[in-house]
Amino acid sequence: MALKSSSLLLLLLLVSATALVSGHLSPTFYSSTCPGLRRTVRSAMAEAVRQNPRNAAFLIRLFFHDCFVNGCDGSILLDSTAAFASEKFALPNNNSARGFELVDAIKARVEAICPATVSCADVLALSTQEGVALLGGPTWTVELGRRDSRAAFQSAANKEIPSPFDDLKELVALFRAKGLDARDMTALSGAHTIGQAQCFTYAPRIHEDRNIDGGFAARLRRTCPASGRGGARAPLDSRTPYRFDNAFYQELVAKRGLLHSDQELFNGGSQDKLVRRYSTDAAAFERDFAAAMVKMGALLPRPGTKGEIRRKCNRIN
């Protein structure tokens, strides 16, 4: 006997709820409950990238910083409340993390077609993938079914997100703590092929490091003082700052990595061989980057963490 429409809807809701509780992710999670999701996100990101290519860089950074703190749960999008301090004001994010309004705008479009159905965490994951593809980067299958956190974790953000001043050993340890190996780390660092950095994050690199191209350092010193205060922003990849490609690794081989932590990937250590390969083999980089993004995107909140489908990404329901 065929199920009545009301019974079918109940069954779909029960299946979705079970998947969310168990932590199961699936690329078809919203195929029945929000079939227009991907089309809506793709359209919104296409507009955003046309207006400003840096929007893609903003979102990939938000996604990375979100996943590294209690899993990919949208916690970075929350404003402070009396109960918790926002991750937006953690040291790795304060005055540097951007794109929150863009995520809110995309979420609003999704809410208009599928109210209270798609999590902010999933909106961020999908938007990130679309942004990378729009700048010429690889595509990957985005697993869906995340729930949104009901709290932010500023203290964890201060401790667990890698710093631009970290050395290779520290970077490997931070990624390993999240279940990501050194290859994942090196591939994910390729996201720095787009985006910019503030002077204070690279001032020690251009004024103190020795493994740096002299002309590159001299040029940057003209607009970024050793104090790091009041200086200019600079592209993380000066070759093709608005295209997602493997030029970031070519810059590392030429000792023109902007951040100390980036140049540590090519500094006589364990990742030199892989960096050289990525610098000449764009397909290998794209393949590994896509695989690492899927792996990072599967980081789930700690067991027992409460979740919901937030209607507004900056506050709990």
Automatic annotation (TrEMBL):
Protein keywords: Calcium, Disulfide bond, Glycoprotein, Heme, Hydrogen peroxide, Iron, Metal-binding, Oxidoreductase, Peroxidase, Signal
Required cofactor(s): Ca(2+); heme b
Disulfide bonds: C34-C114, C67-C72, C120-C313, C199-C224
Residues that hold substrate according to the record: P162
Plant heme peroxidase family profile domain mapped to chain residues: 24-317
Signal sequence bounds: 1-23
UniProt-annotated binding residues for Ca(2+) 2: T193, D237, T240, D245
Class of enzymatic activity (EC top level): oxidoreductase
GO molecular function, one term: heme binding
Pfam families: peroxidase (PF00141)
E.C. number: 1.11.1.7
Active site residues according to the UniProt entry: H65
UniProt: Ca(2+) 1 binding residues: D66, V69, G71, D73, S75, E87
Subcellular location: Secreted
Cofactor annotation comment: Binds 2 calcium ions per subunit. Binds 1 heme b (iron(II)-protoporphyrin IX) group per subunit.
Site (Transition state stabilizer): R61
Catalytic activity, as annotated: 2 a phenolic donor + H2O2 = 2 a phenolic radical donor + 2 H2O
GO CC aspect terms: extracellular region
Positions in coiled-coil regions: none
The organism's place on the tree of life at top rank: Eukaryota
Residues bound to heme b: H192
Annotated GO biological process: hydrogen peroxide catabolic process; response to oxidative stress
PANTHER family: PEROXIDASE, PEROXIDASE 72-RELATED
Family: Belongs to the peroxidase family. Ascorbate peroxidase subfamily.
Name of the protein this chain belongs to: peroxidase
